[in-house]
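S.,

Sequence below, as promised.
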Amino acid sequence: MADITRRLGWRHLRGAPTAHIRHHRSGTLVHDGPGLSFWFRSLTAALSEVPVDDRELAMTFHARTADFQDVAVQATVTYRVSDPAVAAARLDFSIDPDTGAWRGAPLEQLGTLLTETAQQHALAVLARTPLAEALVDGVTSVRERVAAGLAAEPRLPDTGIEIVAVRVVALRPEPEVERALRTPAREQIQQEADRATYERRAVAVERERTIAENELASKIELARREEQLVDQRGTNARREAEENAAADKVRAEAEATRTVRLARAEAEAAREVGEARAQAQAAWLRVHADVDVSTLHALTGTRLAENLPRIDSLTVSPDVLTGLLAKLGASE
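The prediction came back faster than expected:
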């Protein structure tokens, strides 16, 4: 919207760079161009403001497919006014000289024109396309058909309109149909998810089984080695016992041999001692055989005296002395 300032009977207009201003005074074109700034009198001026920037027109409309299913089409058309003079002549872009506001609704007229034209071509495409195919490839086909239809529409160049781009955002069926269409896909996705879960569980079970088998194999190997260790220990113990028994046998035989030899030596020594004693006794007897009785008695007394205990004092009573003298006298 143009910025208009009032000063007494004069008006000053200041336009934007993206707005094309046309100023007619008494039927004569005085100013024509974008971004103008000038003074004018409101009583004799006829002003038009045509936007020349790119405009986005969002549109939503319903269509029916070849299998009689309703779909909602969401599209956006980008356009611009390429010929402001033609557009100002074909549409009412005039503005109020006091406020700068449009007297009519030119952009709404353009929107209606573009929407109906685009809708016409989109309906023609979707009417020959089944719903499933439209949901898969409909966006591309509708965009291409709408772009081609708008480019070939003769009214748009005659109005000074240029189509910059066409975008189809989405093709959506009715909610019930969409849910029905989603159900098989969701079930398939769920089946894939379940299959992936089962496969993951199977892999986990297989890994657990492998781990259990490895543990069992390790236990079996450990038990086998323990059995070998026990057998080896038994063999070592038996070998040690046999070696100890052999050593004990050797020691016992050596001890027995030593004992026998010692006994033999002792017996031989005893025999020799006995023989020596016998010889000494025989010699003693032979010596005493030639000695008289009195000498023997004296030797006997000497021997007895040697073997008697020591007597420190002796008391002889008259009775004992009398008996001894009597025995001595009798013996003589």
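The radius of gyration is 74 Å.

Coffee later?
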